[in-house]
Amino acid sequence: MFVKRLRLGEIDKVILTIVCLLCGISILFIYSTQSGGQFGSQNFALRQSINYMIGFSLLLLFRLLDLNQLRLLAWPFYIVSVLVLFFLTIAPESIAPNILGAKRWFSIPLVGSVQPSEFFRIALILLAAKLIFDHKEKYPNNAIQEDLLLLGKILLIAIPPSLLVYQQPDTGMVMLYMFAIAAMLGMIKLNKVVVIIGILGPLLLVSIIVCFFLFKPEIIYEDVIPKLKPHQQERIIGWLDPSDNRNQAFQSTRSVLAVGTGGLTGKGIEGGNVYVPEKHTDFIFASIAEEGGFLIGATVILLFFLLIGRMVEIGSKTSDTFGTYICAGLALSLTIQIVQNIGMVEGMLPVKGISLPFLTYGGSSLFSNMILLGIVMSVRNTYAYQFFEKVN
């Protein structure tokens, strides 16, 4: 009876297969990184296996929700998430320790570290999708006043909590929030003036920064970078000029070395001999590329491509645009997260504290991503049985 209520036969087999493969890759390479002894007797592979069991349970539970229930949960989930983010800023170090200059996690006995900003992404995407859906139902026209009102609503729910996350500091997560919102807004027909302003504004800012860097680099180094937080300064300087800033670029250069020495087929499991700090967490792809080589690294990227593609397909098939907005936000957010993580591992982008979805060791990132996939599956269930007829 319990299995029937879970409707296991209706689970999306494409997503399930991809996640199971990523699960095996994650546990295997985490086990390999810890075999070198740099983490002592800690068994991260076993912990990740437990994390995955919890994650699959969350996925199965959230896929049982329908879109109407997700609409009802959007505001309560958002309010609770914001309150938790605020409490993190004032919580004592006994429960919210400062780790390497960052205060992002709650330390909970018997549970471990919990990162609220990961779960706020879910709340923000759900509420933004609801606001966009409700607004377009009420104002179907593309008048500039109506679109500016919608943007005002979105910014009001996004900016204040994002500032709390930025102060942790966690610039990478804020970036994921913004891309998720941009994807959802991109799914609706906004007034052309609003679209032009929204596109030209960021492009103009990026162009100015690039021009200064190419023709007046002293402005970047002396006026812009010093205004950033110390850890941000180190990461950007290490990325822009690694040869003259070896200490700041140490993690990145070691990662690039690990990837480069992997070759086509890699050094084999437990064969990695390049030391990379945090190799089992945010830099897990360095271990995959070193020990599995180009073939396994390319396989991982292909799995991500298929997963994102399936999410986009599900979002495009649903007749409820609320589900479409959700899938669009999740798909672009995960895509940017994957590109940023692999880009920093290969030295093409600055180092940021962004995990590689489903592969990095840790509970919060894995749990939130499994919940996100459960929500995507709930969108699929909505259209798959809309007319009492299964759609593959």
TrEMBL record:
Localization terms from the record: Membrane
Membrane topology of this protein: Multi-pass membrane protein
Single GO molecular function: lipid-linked peptidoglycan transporter activity
One cellular component (GO) term of this entry: plasma membrane
InterPro entries: FtsW/RodA
Species: Terribacillus halophilus
Membrane-spanning parts: 14-32, 44-65, 72-91, 106-127, 148-166, 172-188, 193-215, 283-309, 321-339, 359-379
Tagged with keyword Transmembrane: yes
PANTHER family named among the record's database cross-references: CELL CYCLE PROTEIN, PEPTIDOGLYCAN GLYCOSYLTRANSFERASE MRDB
Protein name as catalogued: Cell division protein FtsW, lipid II flippase
The keyword Secreted belongs to this UniProt entry's keyword annotation: no
GO terms for biological process, alphabetical: cell division; regulation of cell shape
Pfam families the record matches: FTSW_RODA_SPOVE (PF01098)
Keyword annotations of the record: Cell cycle, Cell division, Cell shape, Membrane, Transmembrane, Transmembrane helix
